[in-house]
Amino acid sequence: MKTLKDFNFKNKRVLVRCDFNVPLTPKGDILDDFRIKKTIPTIEYLIKRGAKVILMSHLGRPEGKVVEDLRLDKIQEKLMEYLDLSVVKAKDCIGKEIEDWINQMAPGEILLFENLRFHKEEKEADSDFAKALARLADIYVQDAFAVCHRPHASIVGIPKFLPAAAGLLLEKEIKVLNKIIENPVHPLVAIFGGREGDFKAINKISEIADWILIGGLIKKEIEEKNIKLKYPTKIIEPIDNMDSEDIGPQTINLFKEKISQAKTIFWSGPLGKIEEKRFSKGTEEVAKAIIETDAFSVIGGGETVEFINKIGLSENFSHISTGGSSMLAFLSGEKLPGIEALK
Ligand code: 3PG
Ligand code: MG
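Above: the input record for the complex with 3-phosphoglyceric acid. Below: its predicted structure, written as tokens.
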């Protein structure tokens, strides 16, 4: 897999796939801009080297139609704020007008395409659509780890037609997550919460973990669906609950005790219904317990990361992944289409 170091970007049109799919309020304001912030180093790297930078992303699931609330204007504002540079936003992502615009771009300028998923061809991985995007650039950079599990046109299609490189964020995600799979320092404690369990990931990570702590609604799901986990002796379930919406005080103590012994910690998914403050204690206590250890700690998943940012603890973890499903798929040993396409 090639990385940024392998290319000379001077004067080149560089098409960067980002994941600006951030959580929004019903009014369309950005709730958490973590994913945007994380792509800044790649953009700055390219600007410094004289590239003409073209950014593209999806936002939400507009299902192939223009949805006004899912335009990337708010993303454009955030980018300008973080880069302290002007970013022009295009009305679409393909077409003659855009091609003309790109032909007039100077090195160091930045153009942001409109939401890729306004075209149904994106999700269908349509080859002509990928080709139409590819012809607008000289080099493709993949920096959207969080969507690398989707075999869409901008993910797997474009690199068929352009020389391709992994961006700085993607490179870092792969490196850190590989460290957990290949060489974890034990004890490894993995914590799974959220609305539903990814049992494939739980089983897979159980192979290398010493303990698996589960919260959220997963215990209920295991009981209701009669799920048989592969390594039941490693699983530590809640022993008390707060109205079944959060882990109770005894469970918090039990989890803290395991976490305090860990040398590697992986965590994905809140342990209670954190939208309500009264049910966010378990998640907050677990977060605090993790940062008190000297363990190598990796967390991920949109809701978890948003919560950690909100309570101001994000600086204290070794790595916060921008991925949710893509991270779990990667840790489960699956080959992610977006990464495979770069090889
Ligand atoms: C995500 O947030 O999960 C990624 O951006 C991919 O989006 P999707 O789940 O709508 O495909
Ligand atoms: Mg998703």
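Notes for the reader.
The first strand starts at residue 13 and ends at 17.
The radius of gyration is 21 Å.
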